[in-house]
Amino acid sequence: MRIKFYAPAFVTPSLILSFILFNAMGCRQQESAWRGSIKDEKGITVVRNPAQPIYKKDIISFEEELQIGSADKSDKYIFSAIDGLDVDDNGHIYVLDSRAAQVKVFGPDGEYLRSIGGRGQGPGEMQMPLFLQITADNELVVQDLAAQHFLYFSLDGQFLGKEAYWKERALRAVKIDQQGNLIGLKIGAPPPMGGWVLRKYNSNFEPIMTLAEQPPDMAAKTEYNILRPTFYFDVFANDNIILGHSGKYELDILNPEGKLIKKILKKHRRMRIRDDDKDFYRERYESFIKIGGKVKFPNHFPCFCGLAVDDKGRIFVKTFEREKSKKDMFYFDLFDEEGKYLAKMPIAINLDRDSVWKNGKLYMVETSQDEVPMVKRFRVSLNLHH
């Protein structure tokens, strides 16, 4: 429906122009209200943000427009477990079903097109696939954790070959950059002790640099601190890396060579952990507690619990603050590509490293109330002028 607006007779063109200019000035004034600073400090750009964002309203919206994964259709549309997702330049969606050990390909309209791979040890077959990505050369890469190989396919499903990485055992791929280098997690101890090292590797899977490291929590043998501060990270479209340790509100931007080029800081007062918060996390870790695990809570939450970047360079920082009416909906701090603190808003959908941002769309993995994994696509809109 198209809505028409009619101006009264006394509204002159000059009055309309004044109204438009007044509103435009209001938008600029709102944006200029940012009270932070951007300075060069010893060759590093340092962005300091106040505690309050520029915009007081939700400025980004997610409109669901596609869902893949439904029992109402054939088995081709049903996933047993999703451990990889990517989208090519034509909008085709590639979904790694790890239990089925195959990649399912869907068109932009969600229609099933084909499957790639299958369980086995033959050419192009997989045993324990846990990573999928389309490279800058338009090749589909799948990591087979059990065989310790990376498998390479053309986008139409032709098997191109494989590369072993057996020298780096317990390696979990995170991202393959535009130069063919691998950013991966070298896993130390299993949960709850944890422990890992984030490194960049060359195309021969030889370590180039260490980016971050989380030592094991030896105390977790008896008590698991589920809110222990740790590193979070993601990779920008230009191969820059964002790192943040949740012990303080600081986000570090590294260039592809690993050099620190920017720091984004925000004033932050840590939230106290209440009894209802403890109940919320005990429910989340119910299976761990049932087998005799003990959880430990500090007095305050860490500064954040997640990082994600979109294809425009905007940064989403997941906080521990939850929407009162929806306990599973967390607030996110949104920063623009410069690092300015734009808004604080609740977001119901998952934003993590498995999400794919492409051409104004967000593709992500979600599990239904019936524990059915599915892929959803959202139209993303940024509205700065409310």
Features:
4-stranded antiparallel beta sheet; mainly beta; 386 residues; Neuraminidase; 6-stranded mixed beta sheet; globular; 28 strands; disordered N terminus; 3 helices
Outline:
With 386 residues, the protein is mainly beta. It has three helices and 28 strands.
Average pLDDT level: 89
Bin the helical content.
under 10%
Oligomer: single chain
In terms of structural class, how would the helical and strand content be classed? mainly beta
CATH architecture descriptor name: 6 Propeller
Specify the biggest β-sheet.
6 strands, mixed
Q: What is the assigned CATH homologous superfamily? A: TolB, C-terminal domain
Q: Low-confidence spans: pLDDT under 50, at least 5 residues? A: 1-29
Classified by CATH, the class is Mainly Beta
Notes on the structure:
This protein has helices at 13-32, 275-284, 286-290; strands at 37-41, 44-49, 60-68, 82-87, 93-97, 102-106, 112-117, 129-134, 139-144, 149-154, 159-164, 171-176, 182-187, 196-201, 207-214, 224-225, 231-235, 241-245, 250-254, 260-266, 295-296, 306-309, 315-323, 326-335, 341-347, 356-358, 361-367, 373-382. With 386 residues, the chain is mostly beta strands. It has one domain: Neuraminidase, CATH 2.120.10.30. A 6-stranded mixed beta sheet has the order 1-2-20-19-18-17, with no helix packed on it. Strands 3-28-27-26 form a 4-stranded antiparallel beta sheet, with no helix packed on it. The two termini are 21 Å apart. Mean pLDDT is 89; it is low at 1-29.
